[in-house]
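Please produce the structure of this protein holding D-gluconic acid.
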Amino acid sequence: MTMNDFRLDGKIALVTGASYGIGFAIASGFAAAGATIVFNDINQELVDKGLAAYKEAGIEAHGYVCDVTNEEQVNNLVATVEKEVGVIDILVNNAGIIKRIPMCDMTAEDFRKVIDVDLNAPFIVAKAVIPSMIKKGHGKIINICSMMSELGRETVSAYAAAKGGLKMLTRNICSEYGEYNIQCNGIGPGYIETPQTAPLRERQADGSRHPFDQFIVAKTPAARWGKPEELQGPAVFLASDASNFVNGHVLYVDGGILAYIGKQP
Ligand code: NAP
Ligand code: GCO
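Below is the modeled complex.
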């Protein structure tokens, strides 16, 4: 092994929903390792915002509007990327939403929407890129799972069901396409400081920390929230040749939450 095994030079990476947040951080890490970055987001305003952010970071990214739940848009995206940029070597299924509603108050429509973005879409996008990966003789698929791939909590029934399913979709893609030198793994971020978790970290009226913020700090051995940049190393590893015999694995990047009963109050 050489350190080049951890490089991504000459590789084309598609990161979904990567105008900001975890997707942007992972794509930026890939760029630092030499990859060409392709990303999508749900509207042109977000894509433009993302392109400006990548440019500011010195990254010439390729941005496209695509709703990952729309199979026709996804297939068009992949065909356009293959024509304009090249065949996708690395896919990160990052785009995701969450709805925090007690299950019995959640509509079936809300439940379906979360499942659609967080589980059906990774299926659709992976299905769109695998044929070209097979032709090319290699591929890397990284599904962004969650603590909720392993644990439940109040108000996130749809999200936990989706992320639990995404863990098993990861294992199934591994099982079905490993023989074509395609590795499909998951990354399970812990509690990370992004817009998606901002409501859980809001300061209270009296200036105190949000109760959930205090809860997570007590549940995390690192005694802090993670930063999106802390996912870059694990993602580069799973996207690189250094992980060619790692398949069907979910790498939890959680500061130790899953190993810890939590600090005694
Ligand atoms: P975020 O800040 O909400 O960003 C999610 C991105 O996905 C946004 O750009 C969003 O666009 C985009 N998106 C949503 N629906 C889409 C669709 N149908 N088509 C295309 N793009 C779509 O979330 P994040 O915190 O960075 O999380 C990214 C991923 O990590 C998600 O899968 C999340 O479940 C997972 N995760 C997050 C944490 C955490 O603590 N933050 C921990 C574990 C796992 P809009 O702005 O239009 O919504
Ligand atoms: C929540 C949070 C979590 C994180 C992440 C944890 O409401 O509990 O949003 O779900 O987003 O998935 O790994």
